[in-house]
UniProtKB/TrEMBL annotation:
<dbReference type="Pfam" id="PF13589">
    <property type="entry name" value="HATPase_c_3"/>
</dbReference>
<keyword id="KW-0808">Transferase</keyword>
<dbReference type="InterPro" id="IPR036890">
    <property type="entry name" value="HATPase_C_sf"/>
</dbReference>
<keyword id="KW-0418">Kinase</keyword>
<protein>
    <submittedName>
        <fullName>Histidine kinase-, DNA gyrase B-, and HSP90-like ATPase</fullName>
    </submittedName>
</protein>
<dbReference type="GO" id="GO:0016301">
    <property type="term" value="F:kinase activity"/>
</dbReference>
């Protein structure tokens, strides 16, 4: 059969660039050509054998290509018949391509591309072939037309052979979704066309979860204004995220992977504008990131996309949180009233909603389990990033990336410190107010015991009452143990073998011993505070003062520590002082409360009242409270003490059990 050769009149490197397209865009171009030819059905078939993918065929039932138009269509770029009109010949579809570039993209898939064309001329059906080889892209080989049986139908079959490799992206399980993204707008606008991949229909409508049109500002270049809009499609299943740059009609010319992150969203975005068509004509669309007006439109579209999904998340989150409240498993009862509480609440909700979204077993759990886990999350947030990450990992088994992301939420902007400090101050204020009520209430102070109740509450991490600088080191041990503890601070070479006896010969017992390092010139200098607690009903008098002085002098006189660089401060504390004690606390040339001091200043003995201690605590807490806006009242303070120290306060204070067990404080 005679054959005609047409030389493509364009630079060969430009054609080679077209022939280097990626598989899905290359296949899409062949489908667009079929759609522009008014095809009602387009089939993509993949031929494979044991050696892999062998050929790709795209077949359509369009009007074909008249033989006398081949030179115009294949002999040059930019001279397509489509360039002279915006719509197809018979069905008036809006045209996709107008420059004849698409056909050369077939060579991106394989070495040889063959077109078999059947078209109608007068009352005859004619067939001919077109062949292009990748190594000689400018040489288009066209056979002469020959008449064929009239039972055949017009159309074009493009067969690409000698493939470079097997294309995983062209397998139906992947290609269907990728092509649905590209043709989503077109196939939903034109119901008279169907595309099949290996007999499976490309049907975007079954994959689209929602479709939104968002307005954009006009694109302006050199004083010319171009309309712009954003079409956003959400998919029902996981898919690659793409932003397609489209002409005004929504035909994608170029796709780019978004450089912004929208967690959990499955979408395709279509930036539509005649300005994009103009850049496509100029051949510079693929360099769009260097075009200022287009880049500005893209950034606006990015902002609209992120805002859309952020609002969607807020909507879903609000619904979920309201459901938790309705189910009475939300771990906060009252609305936040301070900036710190609002920040803490916001962090909690973000973490809880992420756990709910990423762990099906959490969202499917029963009410009791959910309530427990939400309370646990609240407490973890109050304690800081380390505690939160432990809960997310060890208890909830959240994915590591999500663990780090949520824990980092507390690290940023010192939010963890603010929340933890707020919780700490709030709890301490409750403790102080509750302690005051216990010590001075006429009924409870008669029942409160200094060693088994008052002592134990203070020993449980509440020694800050005596000063922020102190840490509990010894609790209710003999003076021998006090000295042994002291030895650990001074040096292990100090020998302690026998019990330390008080001046009266008995082994001494101290209630609390607190220690702190004093910032002086020598690292081995230490200071200790020893506290002797008295029952609130006991007035401090001569006997109590004598007892604490015996403790003090015993330590001062012990030969093992007599010459060590240590200061000792001894307190005896109760609600009130008798006449003798009041005189002793008001001695000339001594500060109020100090009753004795050794000549070298190493040992001091003081008498303090609880009112003084509590007043000092309130002053410290009030300063921080003003900054953290903590809010505490007497009722909540007593509830706090009752719940936290119930094992020590049984029978001393009783509060409404309904309020004690409320979920907000569980």
């Amino acid at each position: 059969m005679a054959e005609t050769h047409y030389k493509v009149r364009v630079e060969s490197d430009h054609i080679k660039k077209l022939a280097n397209a990626k598989p899905i865009p290359a296949l899409a171009e062949l489908i667009w050509n079929a759609a522009d030819a008014d095809a009602s059905r387009i089939d993509v078939e993949i031929e494979s054998n044991d050696f892999g993918m062998q050929a790709i065929t795209v077949r359509d039932n369009g009007h074909g290509i008249p033989h006398d138009k081949v030179e115009d269509l294949f002999g040059k770029l930019g001279g397509s018949w489509k360039a002279h009109g915006n719509r197809s010949k018979t069905k008036s579809r809006i045209l996709h391509g107008k420059e004849g570039k698409g056909r050369f993209k077939a060579l991106a898939l394989g070495r040889v591309a063959d077109w078999t064309v059947i078209y109608r001329q007068d009352d005859k059906l004619l067939r001919y072939t077109i062949t292009i080889l990748r190594e000689d892209l400018v040489d288009v080989r066209v056979s002469e037309p020959a008449e064929v049986d009239r039972t055949l139908k017009p159309g074009v079959e493009v067969r690409i052979t000698e493939l470079d490799r097997s294309y995983r992206s062209l397998e139906p399980d992947q290609a269907l979704h990728s092509l649905a993204q590209i043709f989503a707008l077109y196939l939903t606008d034109y119901s008279d066309i169907a595309v099949y991949v290996e007999h499976q229909r490309v049907d975007p409508s079954t994959l689209i979860a929602s479709r939104q049109t968002l307005p954009l500002a006009p694109i302006v270049e050199d004083g010319v204004s171009y309309t712009a809009a954003l079409e956003l499609i959400e998919w029902t299943s996981a898919s690659e995220r793409w932003v397609f740059l489209c002409g005004e009609e929504g035909f994608p010319f170029h796709r780019i992977s978004p450089n912004f992150h929208v967690p959990g969203a499955q979408f395709s975005a279509y930036l539509k504008s005649p300005f994009i068509s103009e850049l496509q004509k100029r051949g510079i669309l693929e360099l769009g990131e260097m075009n200022g007006p287009l880049q500005a439109a893209y950034e606006e579209a990015e902002g609209k996309i992120k805002l859309f999904f952020r609002n969607r998340e807020v909507e879903a989150a609000r619904s979920e949180i309201e459901q938790w409240k309705a189910d009475e498993i939300y771990p906060y009862r009252d609305e936040p009233t301070t900036a710190v509480e609002r920040a803490e609440r916001k962090v909690f909700e973000i973490v809880a909603l992420n756990v709910n979204n990423h762990l099906p077993e959490f969202s499917d759990a029963n009410r009791k389990t959910k309530a427990f886990q939400l309370r646990m999350l609240r407490q973890a947030i109050e304690r800081g990033p380390d505690e939160l990450q432990l809960i997310l990992k060890e208890v909830l088994d959240l994915p590591e990336r999500k663990q780090q992301e949520l824990a980092k939420l507390l690290e940023e902007a010192d939010l963890a410190n603010v929340i933890s400090a707020s919780k700490l101050v709030s709890d301490r204020m409750k403790f102080v107010h509750g302690l005051e009520a216990l010590l001075f209430d006429p009924d409870s102070k008669k029942l409160l015991k200094e060693r088994s109740q008052l002592h134990r509450m203070l020993a449980e991490n509440n020694t800050w009452v005596f000063g922020e600088q102190f840490n509990l080191t010894v609790d209710d041990q003999s003076l021998t143990e006090v000295l042994r503890k002291h030895r650990k601070l001074i040096g292990e070479d100090t020998v302690i073998d026998t019990p330390v006896k008080r001046i009266d010969g008995k082994t001494g017992i101290v209630d609390l011993m607190l220690s702190r390092s004093v910032p002086r010139n020598h690292a081995d200098e230490r200071e200790h505070l020893v506290v002797e607690l008295k029952r609130p009903t006991v007035k401090v008098g001569a006997d109590e003062i004598t007892q604490v002085e015996k403790y003090a002098y015993t330590v001062a006189d012990d030969e093992r520590f007599r010459h060590l660089k240590t200061r000792w401060t001894f307190w005896v504390i109760s609600n009130d002082l008798d006449g003798f004690a009041q005189v002793k606390t008001r001695q000339k040339d001594k500060p109020k409360g100090q009753i004795s001091q050794t000549d070298d200043g190493r040992v001091e003995v003081w008498v303090k009242t609880w009112s003084e201690i509590i007043a000092e605590c309130k002053a410290r807490m009030h300063f921080v409270q003003q900054h953290l806006q903590a809010n505490v009242d007497k009722e909540s303070s007593l509830k706090y003490l009752k719940k936290t120290y119930d094992k020590y306060l049984s029978g001393v204070v009783e509060v409404d059990q309904d309020t004690v067990s409320e979920p907000a404080d569980a």
